[in-house]
Design brief:
The complex is a heterotrimer of chains A (200), B (380) and C (646). Chain A is mainly α. Chain A is built from five helices and one strand, in the order E-H-H-H-H-H. The two termini of chain C are 18 Å apart. Chains B and C meet through helix 4 and helix 5 of B and helix 5, helix 9, helix 11, helix 12 and helix 13 of C. One heme-A sits at the interface of chains C and B.
Chain lengths: 200, 380, 646
Amino acid sequence: MRHRPVADVSHLPTYDFGAASPMWWGTLAFIALEATGFALAIGTYFYLAVLARRWPIGAPAPDLLPGTAILIILVASIVPNHLVELWARRQDLAKVRLGIVVMSIVGILPLIVRIWEFPALRISWDQNAYGSIVWFLLGLHTTHLLTDVGDTFVLAVLMFTQQGKAGRRFSDVSDNAFYWDFVVVSWVVLYLVIYWAPRM
Amino acid sequence: MARCMSLLARLRKRTRPLMSPAFACPTQISSGNRTTGRVPGKAADPTQWIGTAPMLVLAGCSDRQSALHAHGANARRIFDLIWSFGAVAAATWLLVMLLLAAALLRQCPADATRSPLETDPHQERRLACAVTSAVALTVLVLIMLTTASFFAGKSIASLSGTETLTVRITGHQWWWEVRYPKDEPSQAIVTANEIHVPVGEPVKVELDSPDVIHSFWVPNLAGKRDLIPGRPSELTLIADKPGIYRGQCAEFCGYQHAHMAITVVAESREAFDAWQSRQDAAAPAPDGDEGRRGQQAFLSTGCALCHTIRGTHASGTIGPDLTHLASRRALAADTLAMTPGALAAWIADPQSMKPGAKMPRIALSADDLNAVVTYLGSLE
Amino acid sequence: MSGIAGKSAEPQQEALKGVRDTGLEEARLRAFLAHTWRTPKGLYGWLVTVDHKLIGRRYIVTAFLFLILAGLSAVAMRFQLAQSEAGHIGPDLYNQLFTMHGTTMMFLFAVPVMEAFAIYLVPLMIGTRNVAFPRLNAFSYWVYLFGGLMIWVAFAFETGADAGWFSYVPLAGPEYGIGKRPDFWAQMVTYTEVSALAVAVEIIATVFKQRAPGMSLDRIPLYVWSVLVTAFVILFAMPAVMVSSTMLILDRLVGTKFFDPTAGGDALLWQHLFWFFGHPEVYIIFIPATGFVSAILPTFVRRPVFGYLGIVLSLVAIGFLSFGLWVHHMFATGLPQLGESFFTASSLMIAIPSGIQIFCWIATIWGGRPIFATPMLFVLGFIFTFVIGGLTGVMVASVPLDLQVHDTYFVVAHFHYVLVGGAVFPLLGAVYYWFPKISGRMLSERLGRWNFWLVFVGFNLTFFPMHILGLQGMPRRVYTYPPASGWGEMNLFISLSSLVVVAGFALFFLNILLSLRNGRIAGDNPWRASTLEWATTSPPPSYDFSRLPVVTHREPLWAEPDLLPVVEGLRVDAREVLAGTVADAVPQLRVPSADNSIWPLLSAIAVGGAFLGSIYTPWAVVWGAIPVSIGFICWFWPKGEPEDEE
Ligand code: HEA
Ligand code: HEA
Ligand code: CUA
Ligand SMILES: [Cu+2]
């Protein structure tokens, strides 16, 4: 077919933040599907709890300490996370570099504490269905945490290379911050389920 | 030795399972000499076992396994529902097809120059009207159908609570354990793959499974109900008229899901009571050498590990209770007809009759095999 | 970089960096774009390409190969069932056959083939040059391929899954599942999930962000709407089977107790999770098929579809409602009466949006002048058959009624009517319709007609009698039945009729093979259709459009039959596409589009290895994580010019 030019797009930028970028929508879609996975796992938890005559089955409620510690770390991490996001939007390379290093460290902390969290559940995964589902929930969140921390790491390294200067990197940092919020929110919910549902 | 060989040769020829008896009319079965592989020697005449079974007392000849031949209140309600839904569906389909045909055959003025985007607003409005009414009609029909379904469900549910008898059924891979509980648990009647019920009386069927999911389904009498490990459930059955109704496990449960049939024998209250009192009794001691030898072989070759014969020390629970084996119509959940030949074939090599069945092949000498068949054949 | 054009053009463009298409003469423009968007020649090119058309095409071919495998399994089953107590196939093999048939048809054929068409068509239909995440797209194909190969290789080594396509526990659980069979099944499901989710994410981002300028929500082609709704259904349904298949693997592998009633678990939990996915799954197959119908119909009745808005709302409604019906697969497990009525009502409710679509299509035909080309025949065959299947669906949605027909051949008839009549017929129509676009050649109409009538008549002869068999009490998934059942004659009839279907499919494949070489040359728009994919050449060039189109009407090519409005100002020396606002498609960004890469393949191999290994040891996941992370890092690591990456 023959063409009839009607518009010029040459002035358009090549990256932007938030909902303007296709990557943001991709991230949102991944968040949606992971959230569905969490929701179904939590649904399973309550389904099993309703079936059981006593809940938790054959174990005391989990020890609060490590889980709460992680909760505090994660909730606190919202502050640096949003600072990084802000700096990214301002395209302030020096501050973003600092911030992303901080976020990498903040990401590792809960993973370290988690080593004590599994025993703090006070039940093994193969003892009964209660043990299975709490390990499952914790495992899901750990995978989730691991992948995002890995992501942050790679991004941190990138920011210190030539690639870090590309404007699109700032957009990536901002999407990464968006995802981290989801990691935090999902832990708040899982924390309530794992630690407080059995105490109800 | 030669006898042994010829027996095995004859058994091997018969590789396919025999005709299942519960499908056919009782009268047909009693003349059922079509089984091959009869065990030579002193084994009883096949018709003899069957003749003594109480089925001849029954009046009517039963239908095939089918939801379209309802012989119980539960199945009848569903049958009516099938018809009404089916009729509505057929009418709806016809209507839609008529509309489609009309749309296709309508003569539209051909106009090659017209752009496809030029539509007649007048016609569009008429089409919008038509579509809206069709949707409204759909909603109406759906409300009708939901209501019909709801009331059928309610009327079926109202059957429960009126039962006069309880049967406890346990599904096993791939046979049914049938138990008539008594106040004294050890007195319960235990049999397999065949339920007897009095005609016209609601029977509560309690269902449970220790292994995988099965589904209890006797289409002529009632809809199906799953047997789920850890979730006992129940169902109410009524048979309106005497007969033999075949049912079949309806949830896929592994290798022999296809050969997990159950038979419901509906008979008059008197016949049922008579059957119950026969089943109450322990197995009679074998008379005759052959029978005694059979019992001996049965008790000493491992059969007793899995099977119970009340009155002997055989008390295994892995396989069906054999106390009154010969009173049943079929073997191994309707895989084989109850004849001496089939019984011998089964015991000689259950795995070729019903591959995968949980009964191993146990090596018996031909003489022992014959004796066991004679013994089991006497357990009426 | 710009080997063809030599030095870039005017000075003010220099400032904007890179060479633009503004004012570039068509031949030079095409030369530039062909260079920028090329896929290398040979095997290497085949492995690294991220071109949505090449990936879509190989997806389609692979899915049809799985159709042949699954279809041949069905033929084998029909051979065994043709007579009562036939001894051709024993229970062990039969159980594997129907499981492989159902699993392959659902997971490896029907869902992927719908995704495949979307991958091929969506960028063309919305006027862009590639999907939003091209490497993710390449990755999804490889994962799908490995999953399919794995389960079929396992089948070849007598480890074929054998617990049915929904693998109920405890039969598939640690105690009763045979050998590694259920593990292969569960991991195959994991693979296909990963690939389906990847496609869903990229479709959503592509349709939301990359539509041609002017393609506001109310101008999106109905097919694209259907694919978008499907992507959302995938997004919220697939995680359920991900959760459940992982639990199954864990129960089997490391002794968790999710489904063990003796330790607080529950066998029904599996059914809830599976059908929470499984019911939407059937609409994942069906919704895009209705999209095919809405795309084909207007072309062959020469008018726009009647009731665009009604159809869009129906699609969305079907998507929503599909999450509220899963329990209708579990009526026989026993539910409280109130719950029963709820799920009966919700299942019947879905008949309303389906009905709206049917009525709108009939109204479309009414208001137009039908041309009976092969794609149109398949659409008509679809309406004929699907309405039967939908109505039997309405029958089984009634709880008491379902208690008689559940797990019988009545249900087998229902779902083949909706799957084959409702999805495969439109799919075959779609192949006839878009083959000219994909290959540049027309399929033979004569063979097409034979193909249609054989499949249509054969199908109805094969599957209609199954309704009766089911009512007569024949359960499904039985490898044999007794002679006295009286089911023998009808089964023989069914088995013979299924050969007619096979003959029809054979003609279909023959037609494709013949027409690829000898078919009439198609030209850009052989059907004089209205959507954007017909605005470019057949087959489309690697860059889809030399200039990105602007949309001024819901039926762009009918509204602008001669001169296509386009935009200017995109780079031609680097891969670039337009991103716009979600609702009105006002251009916002020129986003770079990813270049070819080997890393999606290598990552898929790493991921596949980890899944496969986890069938044997949980440590495979731990060790597998290392190559997987390396793969992903290299995949996402930007290279060359800062703007060259995804
Ligand atoms: C493409 C796939 C597809 C589609 C579209 C459907 C559509 C529907 N299905 Fe089906 N279904 C399957 C695939 C599909 N199904 C599969 C694969 C299984 C079996 C899985 C297994 O066990 O292996 C199954 C099983 C299944 C069951 C479980 C049966 C059982 O196991 O016992 C039920 C029960 O409610 C059901 C209901 C419905 C309903 C109500 C619809 C509705 O959406 C239909 C709506 C459409 C119409 C009604 C026709 C058009 C409407 C009109 C022309 C308007 C006029 C209509 C009226 C007035 C009623 N389906
Ligand atoms: C999209 C889905 C789909 C499709 C298209 C089909 C197609 C067919 N199905 Fe399918 N079927 C299912 C989905 C599907 N099925 C599902 C989900 C189940 C449930 C499984 C379970 O219970 O777990 C099932 C179960 C099922 C059963 C029940 C088995 C049982 O319960 O025991 C039967 C029995 O007849 C059957 C038959 C057929 C037949 C004859 C076809 C025919 O239409 C097939 C037509 C044939 C072909 C498509 C092959 C073409 C091949 C050639 C022409 C060869 C050419 C060769 C070369 C080019 C090299 N199917
Ligand atoms: Cu038991 Cu099927
Ligand atoms: Cu469904």
